[in-house]
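## tool: complex_structure
## caller: assistant
## args:
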Amino acid sequence: MTETQVRRGVAARTNARNSLMRRCFPLMVGSATGIFVLIIAALFVELLVNSLPSIRQFGPGFLWSSEWNPVTERFGALPFIYGTIVSSLIALAIAAWIGILGAAFLAEFSPRYLATPLGFIIELLAAVPSVVYGLWGLFCLAPAMQHYIEPALQRYLGFLPIFSGPAYGVGLLTAALILALMIVPTVIAISRDLLQAVPAEMREALLALGATRWDTFKMVVLPYARAGIFGACILALGRALGETIATTMVIGNRPAISLSLLAPSYTLSSVIANEFTEATTRLYLSALIELGLVLFLISVLVNSLARLLMRAVFGTVVRP
Amino acid sequence: MSGRDHTRWRRLRAAAGIFGTALCAGTAAALLLIILGYVVQQGATAIDLPFLTQIPRPVGIEGGGVANGIVGSLIIVGIATLGAIPIGILTGIYLALYGRGRFPDVVRFMSDVLSGIPSIAIGLFAYTVLVQPMAHFSAVSASFAFMVMMLPIIVRATETAILSVPGTIYESALALGSSNYAAIVHGVLPAARPAIVTGLLLAVARVTGETAPLLFTAFGSQFWVLNPLRPMAELSLQIFTYALSPYESWHQQAWAGALLLIVAVFALNLLARLILTRRARV
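## result:
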């Protein structure tokens, strides 16, 4: 195949259009890269510039004020930052366990006839659109939470403040569960690739000493890939922080900080989704864009950290 | 504990541990099947010909469909793809061929970080650069947001695809007297094409299910709109709106739409995978 292509390429060189293209090619490649870089830079600059009215009005206090009142035009981001971070961290706490152990099964223990279809199904899980997760969460998970899971939590663990208050079905915990479901495939896919990249000699050395496969995994394989897997988890956390539609549908959308995980909450992305088209004044719009800027900066931070961690382990960046 | 007991204990622990990992992988897979099953069960009854061929009816009137949303999705994603292909592929070529040094490393890193930026922030960006100056919502602003989301995926796919082509192809083209350009465009690129197409399809699949940036770019519409400079309906946006409405008939339509969306996204993923595995066999 390739030989004919090479030959065709050499023949094509003689035609005139080709010679024009040849001269333009480095220019095209360079300018495309320039546009790409420009777009990324503009993304940050635009968010910053459009947040300026709000930044001037509220200063850094925007970040720790918990008032959100469009009528009096007092805006603070704290309830949203709280909701975003808490829901994502709970999601990660659940997804990391399932993800890492699931990846261990696919990479280490499972027979090939199981690993391939399971891996494929889990990859599809990542492809399900977030609006479908939201739909399922709203009509399936939320009622189940309200009628079965949350009452049970209250009955047995109700003495804990995090499980107090009425069961609405929609709220922080439900959002966290949906988010966990959405980021599990990310953790599994990257962790599996990292585990598979662990040199076989490492395993063989320990197996030769008489260790079981489980001990080998726990004592050698997992520690070897640990930093990378940590990076994968951070990357998944980044996904959860920015997820909008599914969260908006199941978190209850109330800008209040409550200790209870059963209470409705709000995230940075869902308040933007809900209120942006209703924002009538310049300051209101600007405050919402500043929330977007905060979200942007959080995800740049989290993603940079994740990439650096994964780069540190295997020299190159593993990308999902 | 005697040695034998200890061995037995270790075996038991290994079995329990491996079973635990199997349980985790199984849970993740089972959840997908549960969700899929539910969407199919709810959606299949609501999909019929009018659903696919009619536009939405006003509240309270039964029937109607999402035809304008389906066409809107095709237009919005289509324009986004047309914009993303040249920029993404050429940037990928740049990184693969001239990719040593500080600047390419910075580009690579920025691209990676961009792939993790929440879609809603990219939607805000599209709003500030396109919707605000035009003073109204439009399909092209949604396409722009989608294009920005597709770029890092295409850039990465192109770079990896080109780097995985054996260097001998490039060198033999040069040895035969071809120019650098011809060696790349007629030698290396055709060999890298399947992997690039796969990345492209995955990028399309990724934005097809995306809703968040559409809320304040495409905005949605109840009518047939084919002009990309006007607000336009989009399937995933319709699902979102219908799901949060108080009407039972709209909920049914939301499920039907979700089924449609899942089928489309899965088909794209399967196609992408098929192209890649077929190449591997050749």
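## assistant note: Chain A touches chain B through 100 residues (CB under 8 Å). Residues 61-314 of chain A form a domain with the MetI-like fold fold (CATH 1.10.3720.10). Handing back to user.
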